[in-house]
Amino acid sequence: MQFFRASSLIVLCSVALGALAAPSPVPASNATLDKRITHVGRGTFFDPNGGIGACGIPEQNTDSIVTIGSQRFNSNNGGNCNQWVQISANGVTAFGLTRDSCPGCGVDDLDLTPALFQRFAPLDVGVITVTWNFLPFGFEP
């Protein structure tokens, strides 16, 4: 009887230690990584004057805000709202926050607030060529 108790205890301890030592499953991540795509398009400017954009947030002329073409914006139901964009033009690089859609823009065009546009050129230039890409959510310039 003692042998049975001792062997049962050894088996029980072995099973318990084996369970503790077994690797635990790692939950699959729902996050996906977007491939960084560089876009080239027209850069223009708009005057939001405190209006509320498609992302539901008031926009000021002095903010660093971009609007993206409606085709791109609508293709993921506004999923780029509050996503930072890195923009380069005329040897300057700056950042803008996506807050609206631009019905008159092409798929790779950006419409910038006056403050952001003036980082690249005077407003009287009107249209510039921009190179840009989305930055990962959570990025802060």
TrEMBL record:
Keywords: Signal
Tree of life domain: Eukaryota
Entry-linked Gene3D superfamilies: RlpA-like domain
Secretion signal, residue range per the UniProt entry: 1-21
CDD domains listed in its UniProt record: DPBB_RlpA_EXP_N-like
Transmembrane segments: none
InterPro entries hit by this protein: Expansin_CellWall, RlpA-like_sf
Name of this protein: RlpA-like protein double-psi beta-barrel domain-containing protein
